[in-house]
Write a structure and sequence with these properties.
Blueprint: E1 11-12, H1 24-36, H2 40-65, H3 68-80, H4 82-87, H5 94-114, H6 117-133, H7 141-155, H8 160-190, H9 202-205, H10 207-212, H11 217-228, H12 231-241, H13 259-273, H14 275-280, H15 289-304, H16 315-340, H17 346-358, E2 364-368, H18 376-381, E3 384-387, H19 403-415, E4 418-424, H20 435-438, H21 440-449, E5 450-455, E6 459-464, H22 467-472
Parallel strand pairs: 2-3, 2-4
Antiparallel strand pairs: 1-3, 4-6, 5-6
Helix pairs in contact: 1-2, 2-3, 2-5, 3-15, 5-6, 5-7, 6-8, 7-13, 12-15, 13-15, 15-16, 19-21
Length: 473
C-alpha cells in the first residue's frame, strides 16, 4: 500500500506523506533499487523506456489515423524534439503519463476500427494508469471522445448498443481516476506536511489574475520556442494547421482525420485551467508533445512533397526532405539541447554529495540548493531532512525568510534534531535574492551556534551544535 501514500525525504524525519499522482516511475525504480542498489541511472532508464515506447505508440496511432508516411515523420519528430528528449530522460512522472495515454489512444482507435473488445478493456486500463501517473493526461479524453463518434459514424456503427459497450469501461476508468485523486487530496490535507502537489490553478488564482497575466502565454511561448518544441518545429505545425488533414488510407476502417487537432485543443483546455502551474513547471507541457509532433510531421510531409508525392522517388524531393530535417535539427534541436544541458543544479548536486560524505546514516540534514525549495541536495545526500525554508500547507517554498524568521525556523529544526545545514552559495529565491547576501544575519547566527565544516567557492556546510549543548553554555 506504500504507493498509495507518496512520501518525500525533504520535509523532515517522516513520515512525510503528500497528495501526489500515482508514483508509477518512482515505484518501478524503487523495485529496481532493491535488486541493483541505489543508482541515478535506474530512474532515468525507466523514464527512457517509457519515452521510447511513447514514440512507438505515436507511430502506430499515426499509422492508423494518417498513414505510414505521416507515422514515420511524426514519430521521428517526437524522438528528436529537445523538450521531449529532456523530459523523457528525467526522473519525473511525465514520461509514463505521455507514453501510457498515447498507447491508450492507439489501442482505443484500434478497437473502434476493428471491433475487438480486448483492445477496449486494455485501452481503458492503460489510459487510466496514464492519467493517474500525471493529471494533465486527462486531456486525451477529448480526442478519444472525438474518435468515438467520427470513426463509428463513418463505419455505420454509431448506435446505442455500441455506445453501451464503451460506457462501462469509461465509467470504471473515471471512478478510478476520481477516487485516486480524491484520496490524494485527503492524504495532502490530513498528513504532515499537509502538502498537495501543484499550484497556480484557475480556481486558486481567479480568472482576473489569469487575464491580467494574459494566461501566461508570453512565458509559455518563450518556453515552447526556445527549447521545448523550438521554432522550426512550431513553424511546421503552423503549416499543418493551414491545410486540411490527409484523407484516410483505408476508409473501411473509419476515420478520425482531426484527431491530433482535437488532442491539441484538449491539451489547451488543460492549460486554460492550470496555466500558471504549467508555466512554472514546463514539463507539464509534455501532453502537447504528441499533437505537436504529429502536426509537425504533417507539415514536414507537406513541404517535402511539394511538386509531387514522396513515393515517386524523385531525388530533388528527397534532397528537400533532408534539407528540412537538417534545419529542424541544426536550427532547433541542437540549440535546445545545449540550453537544457546547462548544469543549473550542479551546485545543489555537489552540495548533496558533500553532505553525504560528511554526515552519517541517520543524520538529518537541512539543505539550500541553487533554487530555493529544490530538494536535489537532500536527494543526493541520501539522508532525510528539510529544504530551507521548509514548506508545507500554503507556504511558499521558493521565497526566503527575513533573518529573524529564518533564525527561528533554524532553531525549530535544530530542536527536531537537524544535525547539518548546507548552503549552495549561489542559492537564490524566486525573487532573485541570494541567500548569503539576503540572510547575513542567519549566517552570523550559524557561525555563533554551529561549526563551519566546509567553506569553499560553491558551498557552506555547518555541523549544528545540539540544542542541549547550546543551552548549557
Amino acid at each position: 500500500m506504500e504507493h498509495l501514500f507518496p512520501e518525500v525525504s525533504w520535509t523532515g524525519p517522516g513520515p512525510a506523506y503528500q497528495g501526489r499522482e500515482l508514483p508509477i516511475i518512482s515505484y518501478i525504480t524503487a523495485l529496481l533499487y532493491t535488486v541493483f542498489g541505489w543508482h541515478d541511472w535506474l530512474g532515468r532508464l525507466v523514464a527512457v523506456v517509457f519515452g521510447v515506447w511513447g514514440v512507438f505508440a505515436l507511430h502506430r496511432l499515426l499509422d492508423r489515423v494518417w498513414g505510414a508516411v505521416h507515422a514515420h515523420a511524426g514519430a521521428f519528430l517526437l524522438a528528436i524534439m529537445p523538450g521531449a528528449v529532456f523530459i523523457d530522460q528525467s526522473f519525473l512522472p511525465d514520461p509514463a503519463m505521455l507514453s501510457l495515454v498515447t498507447t491508450g489512444a492507439w489501442l482505443y482507435v484500434a478497437y473502434l476500427q476493428e471491433d475487438r473488445a480486448g483492445f477496449l478493456v486494455l485501452s481503458g486500463l492503460i489510459t487510466t494508469l496514464g492519467v493517474l501517473a500525471k493529471l494533465p493526461g486527462i486531456a486525451v479524453v477529448v480526442p478519444m471522445t472525438y474518435a468515438t463518434f467520427s470513426i463509428l459514424q463513418m463505419r455505420g456503427r454509431l448506435n446505442p448498443r455500441r455506445i453501451l459497450q464503451i460506457v462501462p469501461v469509461a465509467l470504471i476508468a473515471g471512478m478510478l481516476i476520481l477516487g485516486y485523486y480524491r484520496w490524494a487530496l485527503y492524504v495532502g490535507a490530513n498528513y504532515p506536511p499537509y502538502h498537495i502537489a501543484g499550484s497556480g490553478y484557475l480556481w486558486d488564482d481567479g480568472l482576473s489574475k489569469f487575464f491580467a497575466q494574459a494566461f501566461y502565454i508570453p512565458a509559455a511561448w518563450k518556453i515552447a520556442g526556445n527549447w521545448l518544441f523550438t521554432l522550426p518545429v512550431l513553424m511546421l505545425v503552423g503549416i499543418a494547421l493551414l491545410v486540411t488533414p490527409p484523407p484516410p488510407t483505408d476508409p473501411a476502417r473509419g476515420k478520425a482525420p482531426w484527431l491530433f487537432h482535437v488532442w491539441f485543443a484538449g491539451a489547451a483546455l488543460v492549460y486554460f485551467f492550470a496555466a500558471r502551474e504549467i508555466k512554472t513547471n514546463p514539463w507539464n507541457f509534455h501532453i502537447f508533445s504528441v499533437p505537436v509532433a504529429a502536426l509537425a510531421g504533417r507539415g514536414l510531409v507537406l513541404l517535402s512533397a511539394i511538386g509531387g508525392d514522396l513515393h515517386s522517388g524523385s531525388r530533388s524531393r528527397w534532397l528537400r526532405l533532408a534539407a528540412i530535417v537538417g534545419v529542424v535539427i541544426i536550427g532547433g534541436t541542437l540549440p535546445g539541447l545545449q540550453l537544457m544541458k546547462t548544469p543549473y543544479a550542479q551546485s545543489g548536486h555537489e552540495l548533496g554529495e558533500r553532505l553525504s560524505s560528511v554526515s552519517k546514516p541517520g543524520d538529518l540534514v537541512v539543505a539550500v540548493s541553487t533554487t530555493i525549495g529544490d530538494p536535489i541536495a537532500i536527494y543526493y545526500s541520501r539522508r532525510r531532512g528539510w529544504v530551507f525554508p521548509p514548506g508545507g500547507g500554503m507556504n511558499d517554498w521558493s521565497v526566503l525568510l527575513d533573518d529573524g524568521a529564518a533564525i527561528d525556523v533554524l532553531e525549530t529544526l535544530r530542536a527536531e534534531n537537524a544535525a547539518w545545514f548546507g548552503i549552495a552559495k549561489n542559492a537564490r529565491d524566486s525573487k532573485g535574492r541570494k541567500l548569503i547576501e539576503y540572510n547575513k544575519g542567519l549566517i552570523t547566527h550559524l557561525d555563533k551556534t554551529a561549526e563551519r565544516v566546509v567553506d569553499d567557492d560553491t558551498m557552506l556546510i555547518y555541523r549544528l551544535t545540539p540544542l542541549a549543548a547550546i543551552s548549557s553554555k
